[in-house]
Amino acid sequence: GPAQAEMYAGLQELGVANGEDLKETLTNCTEPLKAIEQFQTENGVLLPSLQYALPFLDLHGTPRLEFHQSVFDELREKLLERVSAIALEGKVEERYKKLEDLLEKSFSLVKMPSIQPVVMCVMKHLPKVPEKKLKLVMADKDLYKACAVEVKRQIWQDNQALFGDEVSPLLKQYILEKENILFSNDISFLQNFFSPSPKTRRQGEVVQKLTQMIGKNVKLYDMVLQFLRTLFLRTRNVHYCTLRAELLMSLHDLEISEICTVDPCHKFTWCLDACIREKFVDNKRARELQGFLDGVKKGQEQVLGDLSMILCDPFAINTLALSTIRHLQDLVGQDTLPRESPDLLLLLRMLSLGQGAWDMIDSQVFKEPKMEAELITRFLPLLMSFVVDDHTFTVDQKLPSEEKGPIPYPSAIPEAFTKFLQENRIACEIGLYYILHITKQRNKNAFLRLLPALVETFSDLAFSDIFLHLLTGNLTLLGDEFALEEFCTSLFDGFFLTACSRKENVHRHVLRLLLHLHHKVAPAKLESLQKALEPTKQSGEAVKELYNQLTEKLELRKPSPAEVTETPSMELPLPTVPTPASR
């Protein structure tokens, strides 16, 4: 066919006879057998010793094709080895000259499957494949596919759109993987979204593939960063910030100095990476990070945009917020005010920078966000007063009670707390982490006290996937409380169900939680929840699927009618005694 013809067309250019020549010879000759013999002699392997060996192979029924093929394969292997050797020997310009000559000679045969590997190998070893050849490769889907990544990089660096097409499915896959972890059906306070170490995360498929695609090419690295910035702006999805940091650190692991030395965030990211690994910012590293921030020079403020994106990575925010909560607890013990602690102020500064990333990159105004004094003088002392309330209550419980009777846990929330959570992003983030902290401590009283403040928060942060993922995990520690009507009403009616109908993700997280804890929930409550959580026409597939799983589980739990009738009506159920609040 025409494809065949195209494939072998290159042979003629090189003065090698092909099928067409044989056809022509046979059409114009009087004695076909003699003509064939002559063609074989002229185009066969020119080794005198073969003259006698070939008839011997014929006697054994070995087809000439098979013989030629095996000689050919052998030669090709030798040639491939030789090409790789040339790429390493002699003076740089000489070896590349040799390879370029070889490419000139062989490129016309690039369509021949048997020769293609050799041509590809030559190109792979050329740091600069001639532009004309790259264009030919680019124009042909199959050739482009067959190319080594070393050659593709040369094509990509001048074709952002083509590179974008290659990178785009990987970025989609990355975001999907993150969301799958956040919505995973396995709920646990031990294993959560933030459990894997940074090193482990960087072994992920997408990061590895991108690292491989970029190689040592700064231009491609910059393109990927540009894609990530654009997508972050378009979607506000913070997982792109994680990928930005992971990619840099993956290149750092491979010691690719060509890129690491030109990324102005490298040292900052490296230091922060160590903090994320420990889930804590210690004093030594705090000084180091502060040094980087203070070292941003006039005229280089644009680097703040990049640093803010690194700090907006949820893994960074998580580390800064956990460290902030730990610092506040220490301050309570030391009787120190937040404004007197430079370490705490630095954590807040970095939180602000991270939380301000989107606005900074969007507005292109590169300066650190102003810290609101009230955050430090009013909000944080308020959180510290909650810590004090807990200590006081615990001590009170242990004191012998005289006539005064048991002291109730303070139930009112200071209005200022609710207002801060609604109006101040950093306060909201820290407030949410404080609530996660008390839940993890199984402090039911403090949890129920502060829960109402979560219904309305700054840009609905309390209904964000990362917070709900962590909250549902920590709530498994309060499993036994789900048998109590009051607890369930506060948690479900008072919090989750206020957003279920307008926020699909909240609906999913509640169903995840119930799939995990349904056996702990009082039956009457469970029934009303099942009704309230029924999917609507607008609900997505994920919600319907979770709801069906829950319904199936509950069906299995229902006693069969036979069992119900056998219960003697005389026995009264024992009243459930609430357990004393455990620390």
From TrEMBL:
This is NELFB factor. Residues 557-583 are annotated as: Disordered. Pfam families: COBRA1 (PF06209). It comes from Cephalopterus ornatus. GO terms for cellular component: NELF complex. InterPro entries: COBRA1. The lineage of its organism: Eukaryota, Metazoa, Chordata, Craniata, Vertebrata. One of its GO terms (biological process) is negative regulation of transcription elongation by RNA polymerase II.
